[in-house]
Amino acid sequence: MSVDTLDKMNVEDVKSSQQAIDLEDKYGAHNYHPLPAVLKKGEGVYVWDVEDKKYYDFLSAYSAVNQGHCHPRIVDAMHKQSQTISLTSRAFHNNVLGVYEKYATEYFKFDKLLPMNSGAEAVETAIKICRKWAYEEKGIPETEAKIIVFENNFHGRTTTIISFSNDEGARKNFGPYTPGFIKVPYNDAEALEKVLKENKNIAGALIEPIQGEAGVFTPDDDFIPKVKSLCKAHNVLFMADEIQTGIARTGALLAVCGKCDCQGHCERQATYSRPDVLILGKALSGGAYPVSAVLADDAVMKVIQPGQHGSTFGGNPVAAAVAMEALEVVKDEKLAQNARRLGDLFRSELNKFIENHNIVTLVRGRGLLNAIVINDSEDSSTAWDICVALKENGLLAKPTHGNIIRFAPPLVITEDQLMDCVHIITKTLEQFEK
Ligand SMILES: *Cc1c(COP(=O)(O)O)cnc(C)c1O
Which residues does UniProt assign to the signal peptide (predicted)? Predict the structure, then answer.
């Protein structure tokens, strides 16, 4: 059959969830193992499946839709810009990029922004900037630079990034691996200090302020400030991957703000561990479009000169317009403050449940990035089975590594909605009580 005679199936022809699942199964690579929920519509904290069943979304596309599904202001910005000009390539200028760069650098208080698309690309960009800075500014001999990373990290899926993962599934048979990384235990400042003292040629440390994929592993309050001060003492770039934790998710504008009371607009306060390199993605677009960025001051960003790094879509007018609106929404709707208040409420409600039940051992997290640890062996299917039951009861969540379930609703959730969700979650967990 030639393409000329190919008949396209219409999306309206998909009448059942099973039909959609079968299509993906037959024609798509099997690189994910989704819950059997086929979503066709989203609005705020809700999503609907093909059978019109309504759910609370408690994953928020891994914290990309902090602003809620299809936020009207973000959709509008995207619509308007995509009808005017969508892509110009960086071979020319466009009239939106500079306005976005001014806004975002003032918002996060860095001198410069380098726009990319996916999170992994932004991490790769940070690694390249860090290495180049090491050779040209710190004076490390060429090709000798090492970057410190942390055990159980998740920074994306590219060949270099999976080289320093310790997740077997992410790594195995994708070698040979990119050299130049030293892995240190997370939440262990002494181990970090030892590595910094014993190794020459360390260029930077790349860290998640809370390890989301690892199971919302939340370090001690003084760990990130210690990482920051150790990096400073050893003239090593402190690079924060805030792709999942950033943009109000943890109850502050950035997780490196710590538990300060800036209510989301932290400005070099005592608890703020300001990164030398800040990596953003996910909610930078509110889930409307792939937008990521690396921010740094001139002293670091100046090492990148024309022709040395780029991306066809990076900094395109639609991405720039969407990101600006997504950041405005976070500010205008006080999403950091909401995440902080409702996150405290969520954990206190679940702790009440945990006191009288044994199916969950603990709840942890900050703001509205939380997880519960299920009281069963790591390789049991209990967490998965609970997520299937939650789905039946109208709430979508997914297990992360082992028997941990992450709960991360859109930050536009209201207190009433959150209490409704607490009810769904605790009633469902009761079904699994031993
Ligand atoms: C999701 C994520 C990434 C990768 O982002 P992609 O857009 O999937 O490439 C990197 N780091 C962290 C902490 C993430 O959560």
Answer: none
Q: Look at the block and give the residue holding tokens 């007018």.
A: 317
Each residue's pLDDT tens digit, 343-384? 999 999 999 999 999 999 999 999 999 999 999 988 899 999
Catalytic residue at 15?
no
Residue 241 annotated as catalytic: yes
- Full residue range of the structural domain in which residue 383 is found: 3-67+335-430
pLDDT tens profile 200-232 = 999 999 999 999 999 999 999 999 999 999 999
Cβ–ligand 1 distance for 62 under 6 Å, the answer: yes
User: How far does the centroid of ligand 1 lie from the alpha carbon of residue 75, in Å?
Assistant: 22
Please tell me the pTM assigned to this model: 0.97
Q: Which atom of ligand 1 is nearest to the CA of 292?
A: 7
| 88 and 212 share one domain | yes
Final residue in a domain of this structure, among 279, 306, 332: 332
Which of 216, 243, 285, 400 to mutate to test ligand 1, by most ligand atoms within 8 A of the CB atom? 243
Mutate to test the pocket of ligand 1, among 158, 207, 282, 292 (most ligand atoms within 8 A of CB): 282
